[in-house]
Amino acid sequence: SSRSSSTSTSTSSTSTSSGGESPLSATSATKLVAEIVASPLFYLVAGIVAIKLVASLGEGQLPILIFAALPVTLLTAISKSDLGKRVADQLAERLPQLDAEAEQQRCAHEEARARNTTWYGPGRQRLPGPLGSAPHLRGQVAGDSGFDPLGLAVEPDSFSRYYEAELQHARWAMLAAVGCLVPEALALGGVELG
Question: Phi-psi bin for 126: left (phi > 0), alpha (psi -120 to 50), beta?
């Protein structure tokens, strides 16, 4: 019996080492790749490398097109690979935990709103005079200074829709700021785009 268990152990260790990665090392590699790709430093370094490569290859349309399409192509290839599938499976497993954490954050935000701080509630900072006197704005979100002279957010559904749209537009504005800086950085590297 001890001989059969040692045989099965050696067989399983052989199949793990010769047949592919162990689940532990695959998970570690997946986490490492995900952390690297999620890091803003990764994109900064990749951008600098791309600028240097485009500058060294010349200002032709092809190098610029290749370096513009390369990140999306690589991310698509990773997502279709076994590594990408493992990341998706791990995310699916963690989804209930992430949902619970998001609910905890939402509750913490609700508690902060209920404390009547200088940022939430009726005691929050408002714009002076009639500019900050919209009665339907009750200080439920950060930055609510009571300004709604046209009454666009009187309906709660409208307010939610406008709030989400404002967040989305702010994200696009942040991307646009980067989009303004990239051509300038390319120009400093000797690449003129227009």
Answer: beta
Kindly report the average pLDDT of the chain as a whole number.
Answer: 77
* Rounded CA separation 180/189 (Å): 15
* Tokens linked to 6: 């040692």
Does residue 120 come out as left (phi exceeding 0), alpha (psi in the -120 to 50 range) or beta?
A: beta
Half-sphere exposure at residue 140, Cβ-oriented, CA atoms within 13 angstroms: 12
The residue among 44, 26, 2 whose CA lies nearest residue 178 is 44
- pLDDT for 25 equals 66
Structural contact between residues 51 and 186, judged by C-beta atoms closer than 8 angstroms: yes
- The whole model's pTM is what? 0.43
Tokens of 24: 């532990």
Taking the chain, what is the end-to-end CA distance rounded to the nearest angstrom? 77
Separation of alpha carbons 190 and 75, rounded Å:
28
Q: 32: how many CB neighbours lie within 10 A of its CB?
A: 10
Amino acid sitting at position 121: G
127: DSSP letter:
-
Distance of CA 11 to the CA centre of its chain: 43
pLDDT of residue 101: 93
pLDDT of 103 above 90: yes
